[in-house]
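Worked example 2:
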Amino acid sequence: MSPIKASSRALIAIAGLAGAAGVALAAAASHAGGEALLRPASMICLVHAPAILALAALQDRLRLATVSAWLLVVGTLLFAGDLVSRHFVGSGLFAMAAPTGGMTLIAGWLVGTIGALLPQKSA
C-alpha cells in the first residue's frame, strides 16, 4: 500500500474540519438563532466536506481532482466564512466575499466534471 500524499492528507484534514464546522453551525443556528446566515453556512460546509474528501481520495486517478478540491476548499471558506462573519461580527469578510465563494464553488464542481470526462491518469 502506498503512503498518502501530503496534499491528500491536507485535503482530508480540511474536509474533517469542514464537516465539524457544518455540524457546529447547524447546532448554533438551531439553538442560538441565526437561521438566516448560519443555516446556509452549515449546509455549504456539510455538502462540500464529503466532496473534498472524495476528491482527495481520487487524486491519483482523476485528472484535475486536486484543482477541483482546492477550489471547493476556497469557495467553502469564502462563502460560509462570509455568512458566519456577518452573523457574529456584523460585517462580511470583504465586499463580494460570498458571491466570490459561490462562483469558486461552481468552478470547483465544473473542474471536477471536466476532470471526470478526461482520460484516467495512468498508474
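DSSP finds four helices and no strands in the chain. The two ends are 14 Å apart (CA to CA).
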